[in-house]
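Re: beginner question about structure tokens

> Can someone show what the tokenized structure looks like for a real chain? I only ever see the sequence side.

Sure, here's an example I had lying around. Input first:
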Amino acid sequence: MLETTTTICHRGSIMKFDIFNPIKYGNMIVINVPSLKYLSLVDFNGDSYLCENMPEVIEAIVKVVHKSPMKLLGSLPSVKNLYLCLTNSVLQHQIGIYHLVHLELCQDSPGWWGLLTWMLDNSPKLQVLKLGKCKERCFISSIESHWRGPISVPECLRLHLSTFEWKYYNGRDEEKKIVAYILKNARQLKTAAFSVQRVFPMKERFQKHKEVVSLHRASSSCKLMLD
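And the corresponding structure tokens:
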């Protein structure tokens, strides 16, 4: 199929921009909105995006099947609040998202644990980290390979992360490794909240709660919230 190009360009004072599955597979969408403040981009059709000139975006929801996700994230240098649902590994890229303070990451995306590692390494000012699921996706992506955490403790864990939330927590071995790593290294953590999936019997859910409680916490003021 021949690829066509759609250019979205706006140089005025635009505040919010929404794209939801805009065109069929095989299209290139070029987004050029230099005054944009809020971006919502949701597309699982597999379109290709060339996002450029979005230096003022401070809040973004990005849920896409994307061939080069780092080009998209690289176009958001000022983003502070970000929701990500991406399907590609980004570990080979090194760009900094220096203003990001609030991150929500979808755990339904293949390879999401690799994306988590990358975001911890490249978001030095991150204060809030939330793991959950987005309503647009309908499959469960478990951690099938071993989770490889950051080589060294990220700056955000040492200096800034204060809130960590995990909805739909299963308590599987690799998930426990992620929780143990963050609790062990997040020195400024104030709140850590975990919601175990209701599909587990009450006794098993209680056991998963006990496992979390037993983990070492670097922050003596960290309050655990278990559901």
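Each token stands for a local structural state, so reading them left to right follows the chain. Helices lie at 69-74, 112-122, 155-159, 173-185, 202-213.
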